[in-house]
Amino acid sequence: MTISIAQAAERSGLSIDTLRYYERIGLLDPPARDAGGRRDYSEDDLSWLAFLTRMRSTGMPIKMMREYAQLRHRGDPGAARRRQILVEHRAAVRERVAELNACLEVLDYKIEHYGSLERTFVDGITRGATA
Predict the structure, then answer these.
(1) Coiled-coil annotation: which residues (predicted)?
(2) From the DSSP assignment, how many helices (H) and strands (E) are in the chain?
(3) pLDDT tens digit sequence for 63-88
(4) What is the H or E stretch that residue 10 is in?
(5) d(CA 103, CA 109)
(6) pLDDT tens figures, 16-28
(7) Taking the model in full, what pTM does it have?
């Protein structure tokens, strides 16, 4: 089963322009074309787009994604380097997660601090009103 570029965009969550861009820079193989010359995307194309989207969401640079895509075309001979790219990127993602967790701790502290101030303020008003 194949789908149009508009359907591929909708299913992948990417814009039509992004799909064309990914094709132009070599991240996405040019899809098959129908009799009218329109792009026909396969389920394999959509799976690959889902992977690319995940990698972009984790902050993988386009340059690294392009290297990975080129190695993917080589098949097994490129597997070791592809694995290395993913291992390196996983380490970077873990660092970012740790960074974000530290930021969350600060936010949690501040939220609790301001909640405590509000409770103290409300308690002070309540005591003053009953005094």
Answers:
(1) none
(2) 5, 2
(3) 999 999 999 999 999 999 999 999 99
(4) helix 5-12
(5) 10
(6) 999 999 999 999 9
(7) 0.79
